Amino acid sequence: MRQAIRVAESFCAHSWIYSLSHFVAIQSEPHPAFAYANAPLPACGEGVGGGVEAYLMQLRTAIKLKQRKATFFQVGYLTVDLISSQEECYLVLQIYIHLKQRRSLIRLFFYRGANLNMDWQSLLVVSSVISFGILENLFPFFSFKESFDKRVYTNLVLGLINVLANNFTIALLLNCIWQQTSWFGIFHFIHSPILKIVLSFLLLDGYMYAWHRLMHTLPIAWRFHKVHHTEMLMNTSTAYRFHPVEAILANLPKLFLIWLFGITLENLLLYEILLACELIFHHSNWAIPLKIDRYLSYLIVTPNYHRSHHSQARKEATANYASFFTIWDILFNSYNYPRNPKAIKLGLPQEKKELSIINLLKLPF
If we measure between CA atoms, which residue out of 289, 248, 54 comes closest to residue 166? Predict the structure, then answer.
């Protein structure tokens, strides 16, 4: 079941917050820090004893009593330094989101995530986020005026919501598929492990192309997918900007393919982790030299290639549907490298400003 949860987390917009949500689907008991709501709140500046549980208890009390000034004073770097487990990390996340503590939320993700018993898959994705995040800030393609935390906060919260939603749906279905013994899949009759890897990779990537194109073709599908295209400050975190309904529905046909062809856990994880890194890469605001970007786009999706897909111009937005290999766009006549990437206007013409999390969730309705 844990393996199914891990893959499910990689499914939902390929979120890299694996360790922050792992306990949700496998534990039902509430954390002791939530058991006490009436503990005395120390005065501002007073030291906190008893470790992270006592600290979280006091923060919880502050929220309940609406003592926002005291809470904001205490909810700074100390909490992050005290965290020692995945569960405590998630509780602090809840408090940060509740208080709109954006800078503390970002610091929690980037500076503590890698220390919470991450497996190599999670660590690889986190490393990609940090690496491409640094590169896009050192060598930006677009010069955004908005602060870093404002650009990524909404997308990270959406990613977290999608992780939780998928833990309670996709993980259970994956576990059923891998536990049943009535059908082992078409790939069961292939004896070459290398061929199984290649075919699994191509099958999953081809599905991603077909699904993405469908989201732009069906009006009801576009209502949910346009949440992703409202992004006007495209950056690495845009890879997690999906409506939860789309994040769940996108995986249902994929589950059927996994069952029908018998794609193994190892091959599925290989594709999902590499795709997660690729999504972070091509959504980044990193200014890669134009020639390198163009040549790479004949093989994989690159930042300029995908920026064109996020253009407000309809001709550009209805092309470049590939997620990893661009061979699908070439084969199905949807390849369109932008002539002047700097002239691209990101977002949707009808959405003139950045939307809040609540407005993004309500947008399809």
Answer: 248
Dihedral sign computed on CA atoms, order 266, 268, 274, 277: negative
Distance between CA 283 and CA 325 in Å, rounded? 15
Separation of alpha carbons 93 and 150, rounded Å = 16
- pLDDT, tens digit (0-9, with 9 covering 90-100), for 216-256: 999 999 999 999 999 999 999 999 999 999 999 999 999 99
* Contact (CB, 8 A) for 121 and 10: yes
Nearest to 304 by CA among 272, 351, 242, 346: 346
Residue with token string 């400050």: 233
pTM of the model: 0.72
CA atoms within 13 A on the CB side of 261: 21
Tens of pLDDT, residues 313-357: 999 999 999 999 999 999 999 999 999 999 999 999 888 787 888
Distance CA 191, CA 174 (A): 23
Work out the end-to-end distance of the chain between its first and last CA atoms, rounded to an integer number of angstroms. 34
